[in-house]
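sorry for the late reply, my laptop died twice this morning and i had to redo everyting from scratch. anyway the thing you sent over, i finally got around to it. pasting the sequence first so we're on the same page, its 195 residues, then the predicted structure underneath. double check i copied it right bc i was rushing
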Amino acid sequence: MKRILVKYYKKGDAAYLSHRETMRAMERALRRSGADLVYTSGFHPRVKVSFAPALPLGVSAEAEYLEVAVEREPDLADMTRRMNEALPEGLRVVSLQVLPDYMPKLSRWARYGLYRVEGAGGSFHLCLRIDGEGGGRLRDALQKLEDRFGAGVDAVTRVGIYASRDEILEEYPDKVYFYHTENGELEIMEESGAG
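ok and here's the structure:
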């Protein structure tokens, strides 16, 4: 058995699909991909798939992930093409990669979400935990950002999911605000050497 990491985007009208609707669309595309998928057992077998934490309704995404189990490694280019043919407009597979055995499951490394927030006050990068361990609500973080800069929010896009805050700073060395759920405060992130 192999695991495949699917990277996809969710833009335009697709941002208004609920997490459940997105899951259904992606599972349907996986079934039509031609890959030898692994299914759960029982009366209603389902594709063995796990998704990154849900996006709030109306939030676009440039880099969302799901992990799917397959019996053997498929032709990744053909699988990408077939999945994209089966997806609604606004949902598109960007890349597929076979995960090495040592790579932890998606649910273990998807800890932080990075969002690009655009509004009258400019464009900001906002980070918050999304793994349920001290994770915050995006709505609260956006309100804090609005309060701090005195400007409304026009668009929000999740630009990535990361295992550690340091990973974010490697990719986005400019100013990134981190929302602390415990005290409801924003801080400018700095490299810490820890996740």
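The helical segments are 19-31, 76-86, 106-109, 138-149, 165-171.
thats about all i looked at so far, will dig more tmrw
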